[in-house]
Write a structure and sequence with these properties.
Layout (H helix, E strand, L loop, with lengths): L5 H17 L11 H13 L4 H8 L5 H4 L5 H16 L11 H7 L24 H6 L5 H5 L5 E4 L14 E17 L2 E10 L2 E8 L4 H4 L5 E11 L2 E11 L12 E4 L8 H15 L9 H6 L5 H9 L4 H33 L9 H10 L6 H14 L6 E6 L5 H14 L3 E5 L3 H18 L5 E4 L5 H12 L5 E4 L13 E7 L6 H10 L8 E6 L5 H7 L4 E5 L10 E5 L4 H13 L3 E5 L7 H18 L5 E4 L5 H12 L5 E4 L12 E6 L7 H8 L10 E5 L6 H9 L3 H12 L23 H17 L9 H13 L7
Parallel strand pairs: 4-6, 8-13, 8-14, 9-11, 9-12, 10-11, 12-13, 15-20, 16-18, 16-19, 17-18, 19-20
Antiparallel strand pairs: 1-7, 2-3, 2-5, 3-4, 5-6
Helix pairs in contact: 1-2, 1-5, 6-10, 12-13, 13-27, 13-28, 15-16, 16-17, 24-26
The protein binds adenosine-5'-diphosphate and magnesium ion.
The site of magnesium ion has 2 residues, from helix 16.
């Protein structure tokens, strides 16, 4: 091999980069790909460069090009070329820079003009090569770096004498390097081997494919090496993962301590992230404000924020790390609760509501006219609601109850109370078909409770003159109860005297719609009372968070005499039997749902798969009438299919999960779910709630090919309790997966878990205390808190960060 001069090597590399770009970035220019080429030539280039540049090149991500999407390759090439020119251009060596740690210890608050908002491009060490990678990780400013937490730590605290190493373990040693050699062991594969020793013994250490080690690790120097203890020809060896020079003052980054492991992305190495984040934490963590008033820190036994942030990255002990996590998790939950409690306080304190007072005798009379006796849970919820209505503060209450627990009748009585008090009521449903269904069932109930009251429905389908007349009548107060879709909260709709708004199936509506309905009743300072109903059984702690601005009533009991749905797991070999069963039920005059497996890629792909499933089932049931429902259909088409199913013109309704089959078809007795293992337990329970609404015994068949998942699915087989299933789901899958949480519009949690009930309670308690005394966060001791609050709630909920 001829020895090329460094400038020649640099020129050659730059030329290849440029040609690759010109020839369309197909990664075919050099044999074996560009990454392989760079892996060979960059180390050769590095050899002749100063140590700092060598270290930089050492951290070059060697598989990055192949993994870069073609569209981004031209930019990748340009950036790498620019970086190479900067790094490898011969120039006077910069003065040795002081170790960041020492610098930070010596001068705590940085004297330069860096603030938390400063972009990372202004920081030393963050060059063009790493900035795009940090940006992909959501890190753009100094604050982002400080709050860019590792997802775990490696415990490399124990420095083990060589004599005590045992085979197969991960260990850290502190050694002197004696000799070091580099070998090529295959095409593009290098090995650096070193003989190292401590007072207890001697060992061979090996680095694979890190040829630059041979230039940075010099014989005679002391190093901390971390890696796996292996055996070669009967002797122990260390295969090194991480290494760093031994620092007399104990400054450690990669070894000999608790070492952070950060989330990575293409184009950046773990060592680089560690080194850069560490320098920022050491220099600038002190810039972070302490938003929590001292009193709260004391009461909740929380450590201070700056040491907590430092410890999140480089903790001394696991206990310190746990304390840091607790502190920062508290912050997140506390800010979350502050926002929710504030919304609640605003709602309840800004205006007043007209008290709706109904004599108990009237309520008794109404309940006596019902064809059934209210359950204990229904009576309790009703009492809670009536007590709220009687106040001059607007009610903001969530009524939560499993499918079929009888929420409608509770809402109907509350609405009747509003009408009796001389006002109007409104009920919002998520779809047209559900609005019509509610119109029918509330109409029936109202004919028992208040026969003279007018109940009307307003949806997009009500058009022209008819619509105008209806709007006029609502405005004139002639319509007592208006049921409808989003149409109800549109601008043209005005009520004469809206006293109570009810929203059904809350998870389909966001906070904004809730607010819009509230404002429908506002005249001057007056607001309507508000009742939100949901059938999603959300565990209490989670409900208090997601609906922290609402009070909670729960229907935890089903009306008596309901036949429990029989749920069965169906293994692949019994699939035919399941189809046979569907056929038998249809022959008995019943109907069935088939839910297609969940495909998360896109609605389009899912629609395609559902259509394929539909065609397959048409061959299996040539004698039955099948209908298809998926998310790509127009609302009108969906409604037409649902109505045909309701009216018995369809025997088997094939549907994707995106289409919530939210309609009441008492004649449907079979719910067959394909690929059941792909669904959450709570979701399976929701599907199951679509049957068992009539007199006949109903069945839920869970088809699955996965023997592993069967254990989880057995829980659905064994219990009909939606809350128990939701708790189990939360435990197994975490709140991120939990139905509706992601679209909730709440600030993102990085450290805290929604399911941490103890900390959540603590945070809520403290938030309530603050809001009770200083709802606007105006007191001087709350200014930092207020800034933090605004940053997170006002600027941070846009959801465009990963
Ligand atoms: P959901 O809570 O799912 O909205 P619904 O209000 O639709 O439930 O009630 C489901 C069915 O149970 C309806 O047919 C309703 O008439 C009936 N129901 C409600 N309360 C009772 C009760 N206390 N006893 C018997 N049946 C009831
Ligand atoms: Mg309902």
């Amino acid at each position: 091999m001829t020895i090329a001069s460094p400038t020649d090597v640099l020129r050659q590399i730059l030329e290849i980069l440029e040609r690759e770009r010109r020839e369309g970035c197909r990664n075919r220019l050099v044999l074996g790909g560009l990454d392989r080429y760079l892996a060979v030539w960059l180390p050769r280039l590095a050899r002749s460069l100063p140590p700092r540049a060598q270290e930089d090149i050492a951290e070059f991500p060697f598989r990055a090009y192949a993994e870069t999407p073609p569209a981004e390759r031209p930019q990748w090439l340009t950036e790498v070329a620019a970086w190479l020119r900067e790094t490898a251009q011969p120039r006077a060596a910069p003065p040795p820079r002081p170790r960041a740690a020492r610098a930070a210890r010596a001068m705590p608050p940085p004297s330069d003009s860096i603030t938390l908002e400063t972009p990372i491009s202004a920081l030393r060490g963050f060059d063009r090569r790493v900035i795009p990678a940090f940006r992909r990780l959501g890190v753009e400013t100094v604050r982002d770096v400080l709050l860019f937490f590792p997802h775990r730590h490696l415990d490399r605290r124990a420095v083990v004498p060589i004599r005590d190493l045992s085979l197969g373990t991960d260990a850290t040693i502190l050694v002197t390097i004696w000799e070091l050699a580099e070998r090529v062991i295959g095409p593009g594969r290098q090995l650096v081997e070193a003989t190292v020793s401590d007072a207890s013994g001697t060992l061979r250490a090996r680095w694979f494919n890190q040829p630059w080690v041979a230039r940075t690790v010099r014989p005679g120097s002391r190093w901390l090496l971390s890696g796996r203890v292996e055996s070669f020809k009967g002797r122990l060896e260390l295969t090194v993962d991480d290494y760093e020079p031994f620092d007399e003052e104990g400054d450690r980054t990669h070894a000999g301590r608790l070492v952070p492991v950060y989330p990575l992305t293409e184009g950046i190495a773990q060592r680089t992230v560690r080194r850069l984040v560490k320098s920022v934490v050491e220099r600038y963590a002190a810039l972070l404000p302490e938003p929590l008033p001292a009193e709260i820190r004391r009461q909740a036994r929380l450590m201070d924020r700056i040491p907590a942030v430092r410890a999140m990255h480089y903790p001394e002990t696991p206990t310190e790390l746990a304390d840091a996590k607790r502190r920062l998790a508290f912050d997140e939950l506390f800010i979350l609760q502050l926002g929710l409690q504030r919304a609640k306080a605003e709602w309840q304190q800004a205006g007043y509501a007209e008290p709706i007072i109904v004599p108990p005798a009237q309520i008794d009379q109404w309940t006596n006219r019902l064809p059934f006796t209210l359950t204990t849970a229904q009576r309790r919820a009703l009492q809670e609601i009536l007590a709220d209505l009687a106040r001059d503060r607007p009610m903001a209450r969530l009524l939560q109850g499993d499918v079929g627990s009888g929420k409608t009748v509770v809402a109907a009585i509350a609405l009747a109370a509003a009408v009796t008090a001389g006002g109007q009521g409104a009920l919002l449903a998520p779809t047209e078909i559900l609005a019509n269904q509610h119109r029918a069932s509330l109409g029936r109930l109202f004919s028992l409770l208040l026969p003279q009251a007018r109940v009307e429905v307003l949806t997009g389908a009500v058009q022209g003159k008819k619509r105008q007349r209806l709007l006029d009548d609502v405005a004139a107060g002639e319509v007592a109860l208006l049921v409808g879709t989003h149409a109800v909260i549109q601008e043209q709709v005005t009520f004469k005297r809206l006293l109570l708004g009810v929203i059904d199936e809350q998870h389909r509506f966001g906070v904004a719609q809730r607010a819009a309905l509230r404002h429908k009743g506002v005249s001057g300072q007056r607001h309507p009372h508000m009742l939100v109903m949901t059938a999603t059984p959300i565990p209490r702690t989670l409900a208090l968070t997601l609906y922290g601005d609402l009070d909670l009533s729960v229907l935890d009991e089903l009306p008596p005499g309901r036949q429990p749905i029989r749920t069965r797991l169906v293994p692949p070999e019994k699939r035919e039997r399941a189809y046979q069963f569907v056929r038998e039920q249809v022959r008995l005059g019943r109907q069935a749902y088939v839910i297609c497996p969940l495909i998360e890629e896109s609605e389009k792909i899912e629609a395609k798969a559902a259509t394929a499933e539909f065609d397959r089932l048409r061959h299996i049931f040539p004698d039955l009438r099948l209908g298809l429902l998926h998310g790509r259909m127009k609302p009108k088409e969906k409604d037409a299919v649902m109505i045909a199913f309701r009216d018995g013109a369809i025997d088997v309704l094939v549907s994707t999960a995106v289409v919530e089959v939210g309609i009441d078809v008492p004649n449907a007795t079979v719910m067959l779910i394909e690929g059941a293992e792909r669904f959450g337990l709570a979701q399976l329970h929701q599907f199951r709630g679509r049957v068992g609404r009539g007199q006949d015994q109903s069945y839920c068949l869970l088809l699955t090919d996965s023997a592993q998942e069967s254990e989880r699915l057995r829980i659905v087989e064994q219990t009909n309790d939606g809350f128990a299933l939701a708790e189990e789901d939360l435990r197994l899958r975490g709140p991120g997966e939990f139905f509706g949480v992601r679209q909730s519009g709440l600030p993102e949690l990085k450290v805290a878990r929604l399911s941490d009930a103890e900390l959540m309670d603590l945070a809520r308690e403290q938030a309530e205390r603050i809001i009770a005394t200083d709802p606007g966060l105006e007191a001087p001791q709350h200014q930092l808190l207020r800034a933090e609050f605004q940053r997170i709630w006002i600027e941070g909920t846009s959801g465009d960060r990963s």
